[in-house]
């Protein structure tokens, strides 16, 4: 296969057999009998298809051709993802080279919810502002809250000892706001409101407001929301009806939920680690990016549309750009950061093109890990939630 390069014209093939081979495999774009290629397509042809590239009278090596495009800081990330998909026999195309995307309705996973119903609480809890916990001494009420709503920790964790109910700040605020829990400061003996407790914690703990709003969203719909600390996430989620008092043995969660504030930036490797921890203990990883406003969204680059295999009569065949793409693929490295705004913007772009967002993460050994983000529906919620799963293209 012979390629040609000219800094004014670009990278292309014009020799008939090369053109036919590239066009048949959906490389580049056809123009006046020539196939014009993106840099990563040309590099792939050289490294994996025994291609050569000539610039004038000079025969270029792989690195010499790549050097012509080195001003593109994402060149190698693009090439690595492109190579991996092509090696699997499937197609990636630059987003700007695809026009036949369609807005499709997607099958959202709908989570069952029901309104939380509990008795109003008259027994007091005492708030420890420096520890950000409250303690209830009424044995009967504490047992009721723990057994029926799985609020707080009654006695010692996973042990049948003790009769105090300990409530974290999220539980304290929620029960005070929605079920009239009277709360008194251990320091002053005075009654304190749920808003003053939340205001105090907001000053002491970053992103408390966002954590509480998401906690409240799930709790009001009947879900049990507990700490996800052991699994590298903010919360672990149990579906309505879960209780440590039922079934004779401890109930294990199947979902963890991570809140990604829009102004926070995370190292890709840290973000991926949290997802891996959840998957390692067989839990679904849920993501929420709260408080996004219309003006927050940005045009964050998504490099590719991805195609897959489709089932036709006689078996599975490779999907092609003749059909709308299935995935929107954004390529990143393990050493870069991504923010809540950027991720939310990618998710919106995927939704607007009828695709599902895939993050292609290249590590320092050039191995690639893929995660797909699928929107889920929590009925009655003002927030958007996504399941994140490891995938193989």
Give a quick set of tags describing it.
393 residues, alpha+beta, MutS, DNA mismatch repair protein, domain I, Trna Endonuclease, Chain: A, domain 1, 3 domains, eleven-stranded mixed sheet
Please give the structural blueprint:
Elements (H helix, E strand, L loop, with lengths): L1 E5 L3 E4 L2 H9 L4 E3 L2 E3 L2 H10 L3 E4 L2 E3 L1 H6 L7 H13 L4 E3 L14 E2 L14 E4 L4 E4 L2 H11 L3 E2 L10 E4 H11 L3 E3 L5 E2 L1 H11 L3 H13 L3 E4 L7 E4 L16 E5 L5 E3 H13 L3 E5 L15 E3 L2 E4 L2 E4 L8 E7 L3 E3 H13 L3 E7 L5 E10 L7 E7 L2
Parallel strand pairs: 1-5, 8-26, 9-13, 17-19, 23-25
Antiparallel strand pairs: 1-2, 2-4, 3-4, 5-6, 7-20, 9-10, 10-12, 11-12, 13-14, 15-16, 16-17, 18-24, 19-27, 20-23, 21-22, 25-26, 26-27
Helix pairs in contact: 2-4, 6-7
Polypeptide structure, described:
- By secondary structure, the chain is an alpha+beta fold.
- Helices cover 28% and strands 28% of the residues.
- The chain folds into three domains: 2-71, MutS, DNA mismatch repair protein, domain I, CATH 3.40.1170; 73-114 and 221-393, Trna Endonuclease, Chain: A, domain 1, CATH 3.40.1350.10; 116-215, MutS, DNA mismatch repair protein, domain I, CATH 3.40.1170.20.
- It has helices spanning 16-24, 39-48, 62-67, 75-87, 139-149, 169-179, 194-204, 208-220, 268-280, 340-352, and strands at 2-6, 10-13, 29-31, 34-36, 52-55, 58-60, 92-94, 109-110, 125-128, 133-136, 153-154, 165-168, 183-185, 191-192, 224-227, 235-238, 255-259, 265-267, 284-288, 304-306, 309-312, 315-318, 327-333, 337-339, 356-362, 368-377, 385-391.
- The strands form five sheets. Strands 7, 8, 15, 16, 17, 19, 20, 23, 25, 26 and 27 form an eleven-stranded mixed β-sheet that branches. A six-stranded mixed β-sheet has the order 3-4-2-1-5-6.
- Strand 3 and strand 4 form a beta hairpin.
- The radius of gyration is 27 Å and the shape is elongated.
């Amino acid at each position: 296969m012979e390629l040609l390069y000219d800094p004014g014209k670009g990278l292309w093939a014009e020799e008939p057999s090369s053109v036919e081979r590239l066009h048949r495999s959906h490389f580049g774009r056809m123009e006046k009998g020539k196939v014009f290629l993106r840099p990563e397509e040309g590099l792939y042809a050289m490294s994996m298809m025994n291609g050569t590239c000539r610039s004038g009278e000079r025969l270029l090596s792989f690195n010499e051709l790549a050097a012509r495009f080195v001003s593109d800081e994402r060149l190698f990330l693009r090439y690595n993802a492109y190579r991996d998909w092509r090696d699997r026999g499937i197609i990636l195309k630059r987003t700007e080279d695809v026009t036949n995307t369609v807005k499709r309705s997607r099958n959202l996973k709908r989570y069952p919810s029901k309104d939380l119903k509990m008795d109003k609480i008259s027994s007091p809890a005492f708030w420890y502002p420096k520890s950000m916990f409250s303690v209830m001494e009424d044995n009967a009420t504490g047992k009721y809250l723990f057994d029926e709503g799985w609020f707080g920790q009654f006695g010692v964790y996973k042990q049948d000892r003790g009769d105090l109910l300990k409530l974290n700040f999220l539980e304290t605020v929620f029960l005070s706001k929605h079920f009239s829990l009277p709360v008194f400061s251990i320091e002053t003996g005075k009654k304190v409101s749920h808003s003053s407790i939340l205001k105090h914690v907001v000053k002491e703990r970053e992103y408390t407001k966002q954590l509480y709003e998401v906690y409240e969203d799930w709790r009001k719909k009947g879900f049990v929301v507990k700490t996800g600390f052991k699994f590298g996430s903010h919360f672990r989620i149990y579906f309505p009806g879960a209780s440590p008092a039922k079934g004779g043995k401890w109930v294990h969660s199947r979902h963890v939920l991570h809140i990604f504030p829009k102004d926070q930036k995370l190292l890709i490797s840290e973000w991926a680690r949290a997802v891996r921890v959840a998957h390692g203990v067989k839990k679904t990883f849920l993501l929420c990016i709260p408080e996004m406003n219309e003006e927050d969204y940005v045009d964050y680059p998504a490099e590719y549309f991805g195609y897959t295999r489709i089932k036709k009569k006689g078996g599975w065949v490779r999907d092609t750009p003749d059909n709308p793409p299935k995935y929107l693929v954004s390529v990143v490295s393990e050493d870069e950061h991504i923010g809540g705004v950027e991720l939310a913007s990618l998710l919106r772009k995927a939704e607007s093109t009828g695709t599902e967002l895939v993050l292609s993460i290249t590590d320092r050994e050039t191995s690639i890990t893929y995660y797909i983000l699928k929107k889920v529906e929590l009925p009655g919620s003002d927030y958007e939630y996504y399941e994140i799963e490891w995938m193989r293209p």
